[in-house]
Amino acid sequence: MTTKTPPVPRSQSRPRKGGWESQWVGLLFVLPFMLGLTVFFIGPILAVPIMSLFEWVLPRLPEWTGLGNYTRMTTDREVTHSVWITVLFVVMLVPTNIILALGLALLLNIKTRAAGFFRMALFSPVVVPLVAWALVWRFVLQPDFGLVNVLLGKLGIQGPNWLYEAPWALIAVVICLVIEHVGMNMLIFLGALQNVPAEVHEAAKIDGANSRQIFFKVTLPLMSPTVFLTVIVTIIGALKSFAPIYVLTGGNDAASVLMVQMWKQGFKYFDFGYASALSWLIFLAMLTLTFLQWQLRKRWVFYES
Amino acid sequence: MKHARRNLMLLTLLSLSTASAQEKVTLRFTTWAGGDGLKLLQTLATEFTKKNPSINVEVESIPFASYDQKLTVQMAGGTSPDVGWVAERSAPAYMSSKSLVDLNPYIKSNSSMRISDYAPASMTLWKKGEGIYGLPFSFSPIFMYYNKDLFQKAGIPTPSELLAQKKWNYAAFEASAAAIKKAAPNAYGGTLLRLDPTNWAAGILAAMYSSGGDIFNKDLSSCTMNSAGTVQAFEMMQRMIKEGSAPKLGEQVTFASGNLGMYADQVSYSGQLSNVKFKWDIVPMPSGPKGQKTLLGQAGYAVFSGSKHQKEAIQFVAFLSSPAVMKRTAQFFPPPRRSILNSDAYLNSNPLIPAASLRQAVLKQVSGAKALIVPANWAQVNDVVVRNMDRIFRPSANVKDELNQVCNDINPLLR
User: Fold this and answer.
1) What is the pLDDT of residue B110?
2) Where is the signal peptide (chain B) (predicted)?
3) Which 263-302 residues of chain A touch chain B by CB within 8 A?
4) Which domain range does residue A183 map to?
5) Measured between alpha carbons, how far is A258 from A89 in angstroms, rounded to an integer?
6) A60 has a chain B CB within 8 A of its CB
7) What is the pTM of this model?
């Protein structure tokens, strides 16, 4: 965004060999993708705000209602409950994920023989399809004969009904999602850690800094652009999670985040207008959070190239 | 020359295809059947085309969980199927949005339909005013499956024996479940709920009905989930879950696994029991203070208003509903036509269930069974119960208070 690289001369960036014909060929190659993007992505994005202004319950025809769907949201207990659950969910998920990923990256940055194995083990959940992952956890978290509660039972602890009891359902969903996703963030942090030049560490050591000071005063600031990006992506990802939550809890009250609520309104009650309004709410929340962080980044992100 | 020949070929091809398009109509038939049930429907579709060469039928199977979702979206998008299955709980919604075609004019003009053969209780759901918006193919009461091996292990009389002694009631159900749990700690005694809490409205409704409870009052204008009978039924399940004789919500245990002593479901569930290693049988639902009552599940064939070939679609429904065809679908779905239901051929149609058990659990129960009539927005109403389910069954919960809350949330939806 704020890069100040000298502009590349035009003649270099665009070799003009074939004239307009070659450009046509290029456009043809891009066309299938552009068509798909327009029809399935840009179209719906533009349609949703318009749909949100209609009362549209399938299969009936849409009726204009203006901001009716938005005012309805403010008095809808289910929606206000979902907003609260979503806030809790993000507040629990994002810091846990980031701190855990950072910690694991630091551990795995130590050069040992087992590091490769652990890296693979921690990353492997990332490549498991989300729904399959959630289905397995549904069995692991069964109230009586699930693995977790059986193990807790051996320790003399009676485990809760993880997926059907508040607040455990939300906690279980967070744990399950953190384990699934932490590997990705860990890998990104590991890359950033290894980009920190060894001389800087050496210099700090010579200046008498202890390892704690080195981490907080040297390593972390140098990694801050990566941390910033990861936090944003993780927050957006958290607000977008739907499939695993739905598979795990069936969307019961204890874990009904806004995405689940939106799906329910749209595809269970077929209230497309209201569901569109809700998806705008989620979009605005994402936009606001991202914008806020973008503003705050000047305070804590250093060394952006 | 080459060009001319090619053009000629194209022309003939084109004219051929338009000619056949004029003659041949292709119907899309949607169903949630799978396995052998689906195969039977496909065979029936081919047979129908043989009889009516101008009508081709494509059978399309959609999983039950997303059936209404797909159909509704397709209807709104102008790509509605022509004809298909409709579940009892979705029928009111489709009827209120005028998505189903009135079959009555056809039925009236066609003497071979013999609508009088249908059990009256099977038609109430599909009639509205003068119109008939679907023809049921299934008339399926909820009854109790039980695991003979687990009863033997517990050394207690089976439900069939209790029934013969006229002692098969809910107290006996609860006591048997507790005895099984005691004898086989890794199994559960029994449940009236299904694995997916979203489909709770099945076995537990039988317990509600036989204690005088219900979900709604007669004209669906108010919620009666907090009536004494309903509270009793839910309290029994709460007790059983608390004592461990019934599985908790979310416990992934099925009757087919052999770890569940008693389970309430319909005939169609028997399809999942063809390869199990334990012995089982079926009995009617237990009786309660208000007698022996159960829920009558239903599904029907309907023609969708969005169809461009309604005439042909109705013809296909008439074919599927004919006595000869219903005799064949009866293996999976108890037939609403009384002439078939009461025949020996029907009682011997299910290879897994002995005729005597089928007579007890299906034939004898049908007369006292009650169809569940729901409002058009059942999806919302059902969701209120599902959302509150974990609170209702919590060991410390006051069931009556929780169900009062449920009714407070349902009543505004019934306007």
Assistant:
1) 82
2) 1-21
3) 264, 267-270
4) 77-300
5) 10
6) yes
7) 0.82
Average pLDDT over residues A6-26: 63
Q: Check B248 against A270: CB less than 8 A apart.
A: no
Model confidence pLDDT, tens digit, residues A27-46: 888 999 999 999 888 998 88
Q: What is the dihedral of CA B115, B117, B118, B123, to 10 degrees?
A: 40
Q: Is residue A159 assigned to a domain?
A: yes
Contact between A252 and B387 using a beta-carbon 8 Å cutoff: yes
Residues B305-322 pLDDT 10s: 999 999 999 999 999 999
The yes-or-no answer to whether B25-141+297-371 and B143-295+377-413 have a common fold is yes
Interface contact A59-B394, CB threshold 8 A: no
Phi-psi region of B269 (alpha: psi -120 to 50; beta: other; left: phi over 0): alpha
Q: Which residues of chain A make contact with B197, given a CB cutoff of 8 A?
A: 250, 252
Mean pLDDT calculated for residue range A163-178: 91
Task: Tell me: pLDDT of B71 over 80.
Answer: yes
Peptide bond into A167 cis (omega under 30): yes
CA B306 to mean position of chain CA atoms: 24
Q: Which of A144, A164, A270 sits opposite B72 (nearest CB)?
A: A270
The answer to whether residue A199 sits within a structural domain is: yes
User: Touching check for A142 and chain B: CB below 8 Å?
Assistant: yes
Q: What digits encode the pLDDT tens for the residues B324-376?
A: 999 988 888 899 998 998 888 888 888 888 888 988 888 888 877 888 889 98
**Whether ipTM exceeds 0.85:** no
Question: Token pair of A242, please?
Answer: 């739907």
In chain A, the number of structural domains is 1
DSSP strand pairing (B143-147 vs B294-303): unpaired
CB B141 within 8 A of CB B268: no
Q: Nearest Cβ partner of B250 from A59, A164, A264?
A: A164
Its CATH architecture, for the domain B143-295+377-413, is: 3-Layer(aba) Sandwich (3.40)
Would the CB atoms of A250 and B252 count as touching at under 8 Å?
Answer: no
Q: Which of A144, A254, A267 sits opposite B69 (nearest CB)?
A: A267
Q: Which residues of B touch A168 (CB under 8 A)?
A: none
CATH of domain B25-141+297-371: 3.40.190.10
All residues of chain A having their beta carbon less than 8 Å from the beta carbon of residue B389 are 164, 252
Asked if the Cβ–Cβ distance from A252 to B186 is below 8 Å, we say no
Q: What is the dihedral of CA A62, A64, A65, A69, to 10 degrees?
A: 40
Higher pLDDT, B401 or A228: B401
Q: B155's torsion region: left (phi>0), alpha (psi -120 to 50) or beta?
A: left
- What is residue A218's predicted lDDT score, i.e. its pLDDT? 87
